[in-house]
Design brief:
The protein is mostly helical. It has a domain of about 60 residues. It has three helices and no strands.
């Protein structure tokens, strides 16, 4: 009975991880959709500027989430030593 409970817990954790990853993929695709929308609404000479602005915004927001948002969401910060981060082979994240 204990192995069934462990298997259900593992399956639930895997489903939660899949849900988070699919959300991240959809947000990434949303950035591409907004890029196409904005490039389609500006003049031809301004399209490169619009794409650079969108890519810069995505880059800054990804870095900000990595250092601040992940800490707020999960209570784990990446400003720790390697031994602390690798404890439990990363499953604590």
């Amino acid at each position: 009975m204990d192995s069934i409970s462990s298997a259900i817990d593992t399956l639930a954790q895997s489903a939660n991880t899949l849900f988070i990853l699919m959300g991240a993929v959809m947000v990434f695709a949303m950035h591409a959709g907004f890029a196409f929308l904005e490039v389609g609404t500006v003049r031809h000479k301004n399209q490169v500027n619009a794409l650079v602005k969108i890519m810069t915004d995505f880059g800054f927001s990804a870095v900000a989430y990595f250092f601040v948002g992940y800490w707020v969401a999960y209570g784990v910060t990446f400003f720790q030593d390697a031994e602390t981060l690798s404890a439990g082979q990363g499953y604590d994240w």
